[in-house]
Amino acid sequence: MSNPVISIIAPIYNEEGNIALLYERITAVMEQTGETWEFIMVNDGSSDNSPALMEELAARASHVKTIHFARNFGHQIAVTAGIDHAAGDAVILIDADLQDPPELIHELIERWRAGYQVVYAVRRERKGETFFKRFSAKAFYRIINRMTEIDIPLDTGDFRLMDRQVVDVLKKMPEHNRFIRGMTSWIGFKQTGVYYERDPRHWGETKYPISKMLRFGLDAITSFSYFPLQIMIYVSLGLGFLAIILIPVVAVLRITQGPDFFGGQATTIVLLLLMSSFQLFFLFLMGQYVARIYDEVRRRPMYIVASTTGFNENNKTSDVRSDSAESILEPEA
Ligand code: UDP
Ligand code: MG
Questions:
Q1: Is residue 82 in contact with ligand 1, taking CB distance under 6 Å?
Q2: Which of 212, 220, 233, 196 is CA-nearest to residue 99?
Q3: Do 199 and 291 share a domain, yes or no?
Q4: What's the domain range around 162?
């Protein structure tokens, strides 16, 4: 069987109520486009009935392929595994919860055929999401854009099409803390956006609680910006400048007012608290970078595959992904 033209990748983390409809809607669109395609579902350590449903689909249709992780590795890593295994000339990333309407795939492919290497979907509206989620997402992308050198298009998620050229570069980027939408912007090539209205989740609840969102945000910032490290120098200079001004002021007050001019020690305590707070905050930020450096230098595999279905020998890549692990993998046929 020759390689499919389009690879569609969906990360699956407890999505049992979405898989059937997702496949149905994708199939309907792909039949309209007339392209050959494969559908790769990456089970990111689901604990519900999703794996069984995935296998059922894979047994029915040979263009449905599955990857099962040994445990939950996170959304961005699941998508990465899908990209590593994809054989298509173009790869499309889509969420499994139907917040990204599969019907838009048609337009993504059209733009790709018109010569763009990256076609990302821009949300015009977010239906059925809380005010907090909408607000935090909006603020997040605006902050990221100010802080980083790359321009990540506003209000985009991972719903996008990428040409094989871009995918091959992405596969060579080994970082563990991944922010795929930033990485694709960084890669460049001809990019364009198409607009859509983001639907509410078809079934189930968001798998991104606040803690995961914060971590994801820090990954995004630390992968693309040193700004948090650089502001330290400004705060430090500002405080130093303040101290230089205050020294003669205090000296003059001491001479003219006597030793009790400030009352007790309240000022000292407040200043101490303020200083410690600044220092700890910046230590925390530095720690965020250091922890990520540690993640990278350990060179552990990025994910661990427990099993796969449907891949033929040509595009069945490694079961682990790590640049250091290359030597222990079988050479490519
Ligand atoms: N997901 C995943 N691993 C995780 C969390 C999420 O594979 O640890 C998948 C999830 O199944 C879905 C996609 O990533 O297909 C987006 O997740 P979700 O819809 O919960 O995020 P939100 O849209 O709320 O930001
Ligand atoms: Mg969602």
A1: no
A2: 196
A3: no
A4: 6-225+300-328
